[in-house]
Structures are given as structure tokens and as C-alpha cells.
Amino acid sequence: MEVIYDRQGPIAGVDATVMTIGTYDGIHHGHRKIVSEVVRRAKQRFFASVVVSFDRHPLSVLRPEMAPLRLISLDQKIELIESLGVDYLYLLTFDDERVSQSARDFVYDVVIDGVKAKEVLVGSNFRFGHKREGDVEFLSAVGSEEGFDVFGVGLSMVSEVLKSTRPDADQPISSTLIRRMITSADLSSASALLHRHHSLRGVVVGGDQRGSGELGYPTANLEIPSQLAVPLDGVYAGTLRPLGSSQPYLAAISIGTRPTFYPSGGPRLIESFVLDFDGDLYGREVEVGFVEYLRPQIAYESIEELISQISKDVRDVRVKVVLGPP
User: Fold this and answer.
1) Cα separation of 111 and 105, whole Å?
2) Distance CA 238, CA 240 (A)
3) Number of domains in the chain
4) What is the CATH number of the domain that holds 316?
5) What average pLDDT does the chain have?
6) Does residue 27 fall inside a structural domain?
7) 127 and 23, same structural domain?
């Protein structure tokens, strides 16, 4: 897949494409359905397949105070879209100029000139342009004038993936809903809607060395961008993978303020004890995957009691996380 930023100009070397456009935070089940259909239709017509997305969440420019925490980084978005067999990712710079662009100018700038679309697939609730003035009906009208077809795709519902008896079964799958699941530690539901475990990427930084000293369980402390969605405080069974490696390792992951050592509240940290790993991770970028919530953070009466609990957590990780082939 080739990644092209709009500031580089239009996609070169193609005469016709099938495209979709959206924020696509998380690349969840509903996103995958649309993108997979774009790829299928493009192959059927011998066109190129294109996903048009943004280099940042639009609300981070429109209303920064209301911008949601992102499910994935831009690098993760690129990798996940590529895994679906897309030919081109066309990334739009979402800035003040883009905010003020009319819906009609957006269509000519992006859909017609930028990616040379012959078919456009978007969610039925898709809105775009200045003050969200454009919708599927408007896009279809311009398409009739300019020679491209538009298909509004029905939203995927939670009941397509999870049990229909759930209270939210009749809701559309959305990044907002998945974000809520993650921050309430409902990881099994989030994983099912994402088709993968929620993960965070960041750089391993130095800590207070209690893990390797007092506790006997050295941890990799993760520094992550503040705009990413972090699960509820607690201890998790999961994985850690150094970027550049295909090999994930089992990990016991703690999120929180370490109440045993900081009863009044310390800095919020993401710490991972990596099982069966012998190496130096400091300064390296890693990806931490959250598989299952194990327990809340607790202030223990003694270091010995905490060490005993960590030992149990490690045993639970071995039981609950199954690694596939490297």
C-alpha cells in the first residue's frame, strides 16, 4: 500500500478508483466491512482501491476540548488499513483551511481531482464539508453531475458481533462505544468489535527501579501520547511486542498510581512485567496489548503481600493469554 499525503498532490498513475472516506479510528468491524467492500469492488472493476482519511481527529482542530481519545496511533491506522489489502491511503491534512472548505469544493478537491473516484462507499451517516453541510444525498447529486457513483452503506450493529441480549445490541458499532468499553475494562467486547486486542504504543522509559530491586519483577514503563485511550486502572493479562519484531511476549500489565507506595496518589503509569524475556527495552518503542482485566489496583499492607499477589498475577497471565506462532 502506498501512503500519499494530500499536500503531495493527487494520486499519480491511476485513472479510476473505488474509495471510501472517514476518520477510521480503531478500524473496527464496521470500518472493516466498508473497506473490504471497497477492495472487492475495485478488484472486480480493475480499479485501484483507496481509503481517504485524516492525519488527526477532526475534533482536535474544530473543538480541541471535545476531541476524543484515539483508539490507535496514525502508524497503527496505516498498518491496519494496509492489512485489508488497500492500494492507497490518501491522508488529508485537517487544518483550518480544510475546516472552512465547502462540501462542493471538498468533493472536487479530494474525490474528483485527488483520487479520481468512480465509486464512493461511505457510511449512511457520513457528513463532510464546512459545518458538515455535505451528506450522502449531496455527494450522490455531485456524482451524477461528474460521473461517479455513490453508495451509502448501512451501519453495522453491535448485535452482528456480540450477543443480541446486550443492552447496547441495537446500537451501531462506533469508535465512541468501543472507547467506552475500553475505559470501563470491558476488553472482551472491545476486542470482538475491533477484531484484535486493544493495544498502545509508546517508548519504554526509566522508573524508580522498585520492580527490579524491591519486588523482583522488573517492569517496562511505557510513555505514550496523551491522546490515546488507556484502559481503566488495574492489572491486566496481555502482551508486549518490541516494534520491529514479530514476536510478542506474555506480560502482566499494571495501570495506575501504585497505591501501596503512594497512598495519596502518585503519577499514573503503565508498567509491564514481561514474562520469559531477557533483554534491555529502555528507549525502545513497544506495543502493549490488553487481553483480559485481572483485578483492580489495591494498596497492600506489606511488600511481601504485594509480591505474593504479583506472583499470582503472573500465573494468571500464563493461563489466560495464548500466543500464536511468531
Assistant:
1) 10
2) 7
3) 2
4) 2.40.30.30
5) 91
6) yes
7) yes
Tell whether 40 and 121 lie within a shared domain.
yes
Half-sphere exposure of 306 (CA within 13 A, CB side): 19
Domain boundary among 125, 156, 187: 156
In a domain, 171, yes or no: no
Digit-coded pLDDT (tens) for 28-78: 999 999 999 999 999 999 999 999 999 888 887 778 888 899 999 999 999
Please state the pTM of the whole predicted model: 0.90
Specify the pairing of strand 88-92 against strand 48-54. parallel
271 is catalytic: yes
Other beta carbons within 10 Å of 107: 26
Q: How far from 168 is each of 73, 163, 186, 230, 316, CA to CA, in Å?
A: 27, 10, 13, 22, 30
| DSSP per-residue codes, 96-135 | HHHHT--HHHHIIIIIIIIT-EEEEEEETT--BSGGG-B-
Q: Check 79, 214, 223, 271 and give the catalytic one.
A: 271
Is residue 202 included in any domain, yes or no? Answer: yes
Q: How large is the average pLDDT for residues 221-243?
A: 92
The 3-state DSSP class for residue 216 equals coil
What is the C-alpha separation between 9 and 114, in angstroms, rounded? 7
226 vs 247: CA distance, rounded Å:
26
Q: Which domain holds residue 131?
A: 2-156
Predicted pLDDT at 212: 47
122 with 31: CB under 8 angstroms?
A: no
Q: Does 150 share its domain with 6?
A: yes
- Tell me the per-residue pLDDT of 71-118, one tens digit each, with 9 for 90 and over: 999 999 999 999 999 999 999 998 888 889 999 999 999 999 999 999
Sheet holding 48-54, edge to edge: 2-5, 88-92, 48-54, 17-21, 117-123, 149-153
pLDDT tens readout for residues 112-154:
999 999 999 999 999 999 888 999 999 999 999 999 999 999 9
